[in-house]
Amino acid sequence: MQDEDGNTALALAAIYGDINIARRFVNAEGGEELLAIQNKEGEIPLLMAANSGRKRMTRYLYLRTSSHVIDQQSSHNRVLLLERCIQAHIFDVALKLLKSYEELPIESLPILHQLARMTSAHLQPSLWQTIVYSLKNGKIFLFFLPNSNIQEESTIMDSCGLKSQNRERVLGHKNEFLQILWYYKDIISMFNSSQLREALVYDAMLEAAKHGNVEFINDMREANHDVLRAMDNHGRDIFSYAVLHRKHNVFQLMHTLCGNKDIISYTTDMFDNNLLHLAAHLGPLSDLNLRPGAALQMQREIQWFKVHSSSLVFSLSSAIYSPCIH
Description:
The protein is mainly alpha-helical. It has two domains: 9-108, Alpha Horseshoe (Serine Threonine Protein Phosphatase 5, Tetratricopeptide repeat), CATH 1.25.40.20; 117-317, no CATH class. It has helices at 9-16, 19-27, 45-51, 55-64, 67-70, 76-87, 91-99, 111-117, 150-159, 164-189, 193-198, 201-211, 214-223, 238-244, 248-258, 275-280, 285-288, 294-317, and strands at residues 131-134, 140-143. It has a two-stranded antiparallel sheet. Helix 3 (45-51) runs antiparallel to helix 4 (55-64). The N and C termini lie far apart (64 Å).
């Protein structure tokens, strides 16, 4: 039976995430046929579950739904499911979908933008963010993890007594995220500058800088060094986005990649702003609101300006014009 929208009872269970009901339907005699029934929009229950962000339901339905059913309408369904899984941070299912491809289709490249926008899913906090762990004995540990890798984070968590199951949950998403990026590196490595622009990879790099996603920037840079030339229509590059959006981890990464002396080439955007001008701009309100109170907000802005002005003034006064890419 289907309602006026073409949804079966299993489809409604998929949308609302009731996995016990879903199991009863699928395990009933002939129940697996429900997995293939499309609603009026041509969507099967698996796609609906992913679109609603139902992680457990998506995992269950993906295991029970055959690949033939997923592709029954068009091959676009697989890309759509991949996009929705990444958007909902269901990385384990996304990885299984990627492994099902012999070669990634070009139409999956826009997913790079979703990967670039992620900030918390892969657990890479910026200098201004902290991770807090509460232990059994009531002690609370606050520590920074700027530009750290999985091994370093695991060591810190061990020293703080974090349970192995919790550690796996914390680090699992990051590890899966890095594996997903690995699948896209092969495609990106074969692109020239015009192809990178047409596939909007440059735009994805700027999005990653805006959201503090250093893993994305570093992995794409390893695949194709040309991605570091990303620039928007206003003449602002990755450095500019890092400064303008207060992403210290991205700024530090680029600073490391470019060397201590040739931190930037002396360029300005279409408004004649250099990086020092951008550092003087008021930071994003959503970022400022992390610390309540106007005084603390101003203090943080001053600290940000001091840190970057010292580096930028040194570069500008030395008249270094060498670019980051060699």
